[in-house]
Amino acid sequence: MKSNANENPSATGSLSAIIQKEGKGSRRTWIIVVIAVLAAVVAAIIWYRSSVQKRAAAEEPPFITETLRRGDLALDITATGNLEPTNEVTVGSELSGTVLEVYVDTNDRVTKGQPLLKLDTTKLSQQTESSRASLASAQATLAQNEATLKEAQATLARQQELQRVSNGRIPSRADMDTAIAAADRAAANVLAAKASIAQSQAQLDINETDLSKAIIKSPIDGIILTRSIEPGQTVAASFTAPELFVIAENLEHMKLKVTIAEADIGRVAAGQKASFTVDAWPNRTYTASVTKVAYGSAVTNNVVTYETELEVNNNDLSLRPGMTATADISVAEAKNVFLVPVAAFRFDPSTLAPQGSGKQSKSFVQSIMPGPPRRQSARPAANGDASEKAANGTARIHILKDGHPQPVTVKVGISDSRHTEVSGEALADGMQIITNAR
Asked: What's the average model confidence in pLDDT over 358-375?
């Protein structure tokens, strides 16, 4: 047996080659089977996707529509500004001096005529007493001059009588002139004394007025917003009165000053209603009304703006001067009108591609990836949207009738950038307004 095996080695090698050859054939067969299965799966996916697209295309209408309905529409203009008191008074001092007492503090309510501050009046009191003394001296001088005048007038009268009874012989002409001059000087001294009295009285009045101004009083009823002085400080009033207090009158009623751009100012008028919010109360909306629209303009960041005042009710004092507010001013309102989406004005069937055109070749991966059916959207129409309406205020929209778009001319009203007010005899509730194509 051993010798036979050794004698025939080629038989063993041939058997191993046959086995290896049969193994390679099995693997090749399995690869072919897997490829065939994958091809069948891909074909099934492509067929399924194609059938879904055909069913979707058959079921979906060719246009996107929205039902025409009635509703309310409001056009608002947004502006920002700051809250201010209706009347704000800055209290200063005409006098210079040292502050002796301060009677009020911030947030205190004050009434008209209530003392706020007192200056040291020692020097003013002394000046007032000096003026009174000067007045008394002038009055005494007047009395003395009046007595001198009477004496001079009496002397002149005797000289005149003597001249009459002596037929002009006595007194002499020189004595007569001296008597007349003495009487005139006495009369002039009386006038000078009266002028000195008037001057002394005026100076006394000035000192008394300054003395009264040493106690600074509130000019209005209101609330102290700021206080800029403390006892012991020196008030220096030179060319301008120093600011001591700022008083706001009646914070229950305030005003909101906002700036309106020149593009919107033509719509704003006194009496319009508005609402606004402040950062301090983000969840609360306040109401206001327009009271004044300024004609004067200002340029802010190269934009021409106009200042507008709104009246604000602040009974609960939740609003404070200086707060920044964002206001929405209602400049136009329409109730129970037909509303059309702005997109309806941009739809134009003439820009749609013919059916079957515009198809693009797809790669193998794109063809096997599932996805929604592609939609054909329309380019912007030549007639434009509501903001590009014709000069006569009309525009064109399209309604879906018997499966086809039909143009309708409508009159355009106000728009809030989402819906536009339209009117026309051809409009009726429930119409399908075309906004786009699929």
From this structure: 48
Angle at 358 between CA 355 and CA 360, to 5 degrees: 130
Q: What average pLDDT score do residues 227-244 get?
A: 85
Quote the CA–CA distance of 386 and 252 in Å, as a whole number: 43
For 174-193, b where at least 16 C-beta lie within 10 A, e where not — what string?
eebeebeebbeebbebbeeb
Distance CA 164, CA 170 (A): 9
Banded model confidence at residue 5, pLDDT cuts 50, 70, 90: very low
Q: Are 347 and 381 in contact (CB under 8 A)?
A: yes
The stretches of 60-169 forming alpha helices (DSSP H) are: 122-165
Rounded-to-integer distance, Cα 63 and Cα 397, Å: 14
Do 246 and 89 form a contact (C-beta atoms < 8 A)? yes
Helix (H, G, I), strand (E, B) or coil at 113: coil
The answer to whether 349 and 378 have CB atoms below 8 angstroms apart is yes
Q: Measure the CA–CA gap between 152 and 133, rounded to whole angstroms.
A: 29
